[in-house]
Amino acid sequence: MTRRTIGLLVTFILGLLVAPLAAPAQPAGKVPRIGVLMSGGRPPSSCSNPVFLRELRTLGYVEGQNILIEWRCAELNAERTRQFAGTLVQLGVDAIVANGHMAALAAKAATTTIPIVFIAGGDPVPELVPSLARPGGNVTGVSYLPGWDFFATHLERLMVAVPGITRVALLLAAEDVYNAVRITPVERAAQAVGVHLHPVEVAVPDGLEAAFSAMTRQGVGGLLVGFDATLDRHHPQIAALAAKSRLPSIAEPRAFAEQGGLMSYGAARGDLVRRAATHLDKILKGAKPADLPVEQPATFELVINLKTAQALGLTIPPALLFQATEILR
Q1: In the chain, what is the greatest distance between 2 CA atoms, to the nearest angstrom?
Q2: Which CATH architecture has domain 148-268+300-328?
């Protein structure tokens, strides 16, 4: 056997030994495929998120070119959300972006290996992650709210807008399993300032009109709209009924004020979606969800609808107007 033959044989054997070690590396130029699972009320025909797509483009990703996206909108159906989560896992996506608490829980239940980036409301500890600073598993993301006691700040703003108010209703979707933890901090805040809180759990949307009639009979002077995807979907009807009942109202998403509610106060959701896209970018470049802290809101928006205030006969104090991010006239 010649030296050249021996050299070729050694090279061949070394190649066989090294090949298994290199196998897990992704092929160069592989286009990442992600799943976006949305638990909210968007129909399949409009199942996308323009803000998310714009931020991905800013980060260098263009859908259909260097990133593939499997969109799934569950229309607030828990069973469908679980089915879609399982489908995305079966498709072998490289990561899942879960928009909504229901979607985040479904994605987490469906896989312990595929990275998950959630955009969800409420406290993610311990249901989604054991710790904000150290998520520890395959789940990380951004939270809409710093905690359920956030809604006590809605009461504060409503009292400034309507001086002397003594009875306030808290509207909640009857099927929401988190109502108990949402009511407690608001009740505590109301008691501290001598306000009587009326929690109203209602079947949405069928029970809304009856609920508003009951609030009027009880002499309620203001309305806090609870944080819930079901209620979000019916904000136009809730805002209209509040106006008809002459009830000053406040909710978390800015869309509520735009749809006729008196005020909205909450996190700048567009900013949170952009930060979720940044999390995803880091994961696609090799970061582990366990090492990416869950982010909480840094920017909050107070939107006041002056047209609604005028219809209710309210004069919004200058101090509150000064705090507003936007005033709708």
Answers
A1: 103
A2: 3-Layer(aba) Sandwich (3.40)
